[in-house]
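does this look right to u?? LLP version
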Amino acid sequence: MMISGHLGVNFAGHLTVSGVDTVDIAKEYGTPLYVMDEQTIRENLRSLKEAIDRSCKNGGRVAFASKACSFKEMYRIVASEGCGTDVVSCGEMYTAMQAGMPLDRVYFHGNNKTDADLRYALENGVGRIVVDNFDELRALEAVAAELGKTAAILMRVTPGIDAHTHSFIRTGQIDSKFGFTLETGEVYEAVETALSLPHIDLKGLHCHVASQIFDEEPMIHAAEVMVGVMVEIKNRFGRALSELNLGGGFGIAYTDEDHPKPAHEYMELVGNAVTKTAENNDFPTPFVIVEPGRSIVAAAGLTLYTVGGVKRIPNVRTYVSVDGGMTDNPRYALYQAAYTAVLPEKAAAEPTETVTISGHCCESGDLLQENVPLPAVKRGDLLAFLTTGAYNYSMSSNYNRYPKPAVVMVNDGETRVVVRRETFEDVARNDI
Ligand code: LLP
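got this back:
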């Protein structure tokens, strides 16, 4: 049942977020609108942190992957839970800093950090730079030397684990733009280089297997492989690295057909694997970092739209157009991503027809979902997409010069705007 947890249906048959009627929210703030539930975000962070504390002998940290949802209030919530964040650009880093996120808890990613990016990160005291390739390692050494600083780094490893077949495959995953390849021995060359560079302080390793993983096996396997690499580094170079960042990827349910384990259960198994593998090898258990994005925010969010035209094409299909689309949620257009749609004013009603939900962009590919069972729907009705908290606002665009929707946070029966709705002036603000 997708309507559960913080989502409910009230006496009027309306969809609610932590008891607050979404119909009232839409009236107050307009549509399209992102709505997020603060307690759900906080609980997701806390349960994961507790799982780390239970399973990782030397502790660890949740570093929210802010690519999933990046705006100041999100960083404030994450920071106030004692967590850190993963950033993949100086724009995300800037936003995190502006929100007061302590920089020492920030992990800076990316497969193409420019010299200017590296300088910005070092000047601002970012906690760890996750080095992706040899060119970057050398560039970072040069920039750090120039600034008279030492760069604390993690090294990104591509361990070659296929998240979907569970196998440690020898070719497929080598083909990645990210990280140093384990299979070819590149990782050990990179470690040797890093250890020889005077302005580089190699703290540990990083890997990220995949996103939206449903089974624990691939990540457990990755944990075992990565601790094995740390043991091998100690054997070869006499250095015991103390940090292991296992990336993100815990899967979540977008529809009733998805049945992932809760992320914290998954985390506990992975943490136990790290501790056990380290102990078996007589290696000090590393400090474990995870970088979940989707599992922290996806279910906390929903998007409210207003239905416009309903176009019925007999024996073909019915298009239900809404006042948003690929501009606020490009995930169907990009990945045919599945979502659950609900009519907030008739949340308990049985479906009577199957429709295609189309966006407002001047483009046939602007669909939000196909084959959606809905109760009778007409112009003016509200329509909600559930689980849109991850990779929706952060991937939104101004295509067709649509202003981006506002983000409203629900907490303790109250609502507040955390990202203002864009205006037409905002859309044209950089035009000369
Ligand atoms: N860490 C690293 C290094 C990553 O590359 C990613 C995701 C994460 C953490 C967070 O993964 P998560 O826990 O959110 O699965 N735009 C796509 C998702 C791209 C994810 C890329 N990296 C989508 O809309 O599904």
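The mean pLDDT is 96. idk if thats expected tbh
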